[in-house]
Each structure stands twice: as structure tokens, then as C-alpha cells.
């Protein structure tokens, strides 16, 4: 069915198609037709990761539902967990349009969205209206006009606000679309970040009598040395999980294609090899002490299995949904189950 619809969606601009698809899915949900289209949700291969019970290993990556507006309808696709955001303390429009580009022959996207979102207060208001009872992750970023020296303030505020509503919280310090953000993955800045956030997590655990795992999302463009240093810090601060990876600045796999020279992060099939290599290296460095959530280029069940074989405990999809359609989730679950 999606193979018939996709050519029509691809005649729309990427952002328009994104909005149209989510609103259409939401309409099906509200009309109680989602089960008719997507079938009954079934638990495949439940697992425990970060102390949380996941009904299956397939999650939705952050970015698709930035404001937590579509959690209920997205849950009908069979996800074991859903991650919303990236959300910032204050609302922001993001980068000027156009800022999202398709590379269809490579099943890829380039985006420079820039953390466009309605702010953390609006996200939490939306989440309070959902019926979703599954595993929910909330992905935090910093506002574009918060300096890198004060970035910790935005993450500190975000963590405090979302803590009661999240099953886990992701700290996004790897988007290539907020100037300077990736500096937070390195050296003293990373050390300070993890120190403050871990202490905040401990304080909030006491306050709410609830332990919410902290997850760090890293880039695929790290050197081996950088990866080793990050791994040491993750272990030192007993961070609960790591997402590998965000989008890439590399264009090695798409040179010469239309839009390949657009600024922003590349996602989709061309990212698969590099992001999977990062998972494998992380697995070796962390020795199973920090669970890995793999994201990047998962377009089918074999890709998901390869991430798990490389050492991931969970996987996330996003661009694969754009090219393969909403049935991708259950297709992967059936294969893995």
C-alpha cells in the first residue's frame, strides 16, 4: 500500500509530506481505524534494558515527533518505545526553510532543521493528554542562542522539567545543525556536562522516588580517540545508555547527487555502515557495561539484526519509515521475533 502512496507524498515538499502523513495517521487513530490498517499490536521479543521492560527492541528515533503531538497514533505501528523531541527550554523556529531534502536513489535525507520545536512546556502539556503507557524517551537539546559555555543550563533545566514524565532522557550533544553543539562531546565540556547531569539525576531520583535513566546521543563522525575518551566518561559517570548515532556530515556515499551539497546531517541508508561501525567499537570499549541503542540507516530487518549483532541492545528507526513506510516496524519485529 505504501509503495502506491509514496510517489504522491514525494511530490510534496519533505516537510509538507511529513506533516500530512502524521496528521493522516492521527486521523486514522482518532477514527479508531488504525488497527484496521496496521493490525493488532503484538509484543515481540520483550527485553529488559536500562532496568526498563521493553515490549520489543524497535523504537522510534527522536525528530519525527518533536512536540509529543502524535505519540498515541505512532504507538499503533508496533514500536517497543518512542522517543520524542528534540525539545529545548524555549520555543524556537529552527533554521530557515528549505531545510529538509530527499536523496531518493540512496534512500537518504539531509536535514538542517535546527531543533525547531514548541518548547518543553508545550511538549509536557501534550504528553499529559496522551493515553500511551509504553516506554517513552524524551530527547533534550539547547536553544540556538544559548552559548556553549552555558549549554549545561539548558540541559539542567530540561532534565528537571521532563524527569517526572519520561521513562528515559536522552541528552543530544551531537546534532550538526546547532552551531558548536558537538563540542560538548569532548574533554572538559563533556566531563562537566555528565557530572552536573548525573548529580541532577540523583537528586531527582530522591525527589520523585523514581529512577529515570540518562542516555547520551553521539555523532558518527568521531575519531577513534574521541570515541575512547567518550567511553571512559560514560563508564566513569555510570551513564545508563548511549545512542549511536546521530546524522553525519560526511558526503562520501552521496557525492554528485542532487542536494548532496546541502548543509546539514545525512541520514538513511548511506549512514548504515559508519554508524554500525561506531556501535561495534563502542561495544568493544564499553564491554557491555553501558547499553547501546543503535540508530542510523536501518531500512529493513537485516539492517536491524546487523546492529544487534554489532552489540546494540535496542534499535531506532526514522528515515527508514520515510522510504519503507509504517509497516517497516512490524516487519522488523516479525523477523527478530
Can you describe what's shown?
The protein is α/β, with parallel strands linked by helices. It has a single domain, classed as TIM Barrel (Alpha-Beta Barrel). It is 39% helix and 17% strand. It is built from 12 helices and 13 strands. The chain has helices spanning 2-9, 14-30, 34-38, 71-75, 120-127, 151-162, 187-208, 224-236, 272-286, 301-310, 319-324, 328-336, and strands spanning 47-49, 52-54, 58-60, 81-87, 100-103, 108-111, 135-140, 168-172, 214-218, 241-244, 265-268, 292-295, 314-317. Strands 3-4-7-8-9-10-12-13 form an 8-stranded parallel β-barrel, surrounded by 5 helices. A hairpin with a 2-residue loop joins strand 1 and strand 2 (52-54). Helix 7 (187-208) packs parallel to helix 8. It is globular and about 50 Å long. The chain starts with a helix and ends with a helix. 46% of the residues are buried. The model has no long low-confidence stretch (mean pLDDT 94).
Keywords:
alpha/beta; three-stranded antiparallel sheet; 39% helix; TIM Barrel; 337 residues
Amino acid at each position: 500500500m505504501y509503495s502506491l502512496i509514496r510517489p504522491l507524498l514525494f511530490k510534496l515538499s519533505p516537510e509538507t509530506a511529513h506533516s500530512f502523513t502524521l496528521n493522516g495517521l492521527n486521523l486514522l487513530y482518532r477514527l479508531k481505524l488504525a488497527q484496521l490498517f496496521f493490525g493488532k499490536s503484538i509484543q515481540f521479543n520483550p527485553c529488559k534494558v536500562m532496568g526498563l521492560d521493553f515490549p520489543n527492541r524497535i523504537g522510534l528515533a527522536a525528530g519525527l515527533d518533536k512536540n509529543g503531538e502524535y505519540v498515541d497514533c505512532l504507538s499503533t505501528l508496533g514500536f517497543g518505545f518512542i522517543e520524542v523531541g528534540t525539545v529545548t527550554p524555549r520555543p524556537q523556529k529552527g533554521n530557515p526553510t528549505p531545510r529538509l531534502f530527499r536523496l531518493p536513489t540512496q534512500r537518504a535525507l539531509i536535514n538542517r532543521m535546527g531543533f525547531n520545536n514548541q518548547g518543553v512546556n508545550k511538549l509536557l502539556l501534550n504528553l499529559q493528554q496522551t493515553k500511551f503507557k509504553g516506554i517513552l524517551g524524551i530527547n533534550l537539546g539547547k536553544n540556538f542562542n544559548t552559548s556553549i559555555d552555558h549549554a549545561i543550563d539548558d540541559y539542567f533545566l530540561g532534565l528537571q522539567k521532563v524527569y517526572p514524565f519520561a521513562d528515559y532522557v536522552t541528552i543530544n550533544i551531537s546534532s550538526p545543525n546547532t552551531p558548536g553543539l558537538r563540542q560538548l562531546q569532548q574533554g572538559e565540556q563533556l566531563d562537566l556536562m555528565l557530572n552536573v547531569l548525573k548529580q541532577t539525576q540523583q537528586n531527582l531520583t530522591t525527589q520523585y522516588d523514581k529512577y529515570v535513566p540518562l542516555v547520551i546521543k553521539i555523532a558518527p563522525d568521531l575519531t577513534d580517540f574521541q570515541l575512547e575518551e567518550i567511553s571512559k566518561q560514560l563508564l566513569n559517570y555510570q551513564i545508563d545508555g548511549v545512542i549511536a548515532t546521530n546524522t553525519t556530515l560526511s558526503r562520501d556515499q552521496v557525492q554528485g547527487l542532487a542536494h548532496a551539497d546541502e548543509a546539514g546531517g545525512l541520514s538513511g541508508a548511506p549512514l548504515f555502515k559508519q554508524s554500525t561501525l561506531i556501535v561495534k567499537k563502542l561495544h568493544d570499549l564499553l564491554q557491555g557495561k553501558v547499553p547501546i541503542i543503535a540508530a542510523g540507516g536501518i531500512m529493513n530487518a537485516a539492517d536491524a539484526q546487523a546492529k544487534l549483532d554489532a552489540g546494540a541492545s535496542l534499535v531506532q528507526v526514522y528515515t527508514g519509515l520515510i522510504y519503507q513506510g509504517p509497516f517497516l516496524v512490524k516487519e522488523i519485529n516479525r523477523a527478530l521475533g
